[in-house]
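[retry 2/3] Cell division topological specificity factor: previous attempt timed out, resubmitting with same input.
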Amino acid sequence: MSIFDFLKPKKTTAITAKNRLQIIIAQERSSQGAPDYLPLMRREILEVIRKYVNVDVDAVKVDVVKDGDHDVLDISVSLPDARASA
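[retry 2/3] Cell division topological specificity factor: success.
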């Protein structure tokens, strides 16, 4: 280790930034084919569920999945354990 090593930028931050950018790009590419109405639909479904059950924002997942020639709307809701809320 030389005396000037502290002046060199650390490569770990560059690698971390590169990895984060790759994740963001992958998410953007996967959402490009998704319909525009999915975020609004997800919010509305969450609002209706919250009228009856207290759930987190991340509890509702809405995706469109290809099944052969058809697009299938896949809705997944993680409900809290009834015993935990009692």
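[retry 2/3] Cell division topological specificity factor: The chain has three helices and two strands.
[retry 2/3] clearing retry counter.
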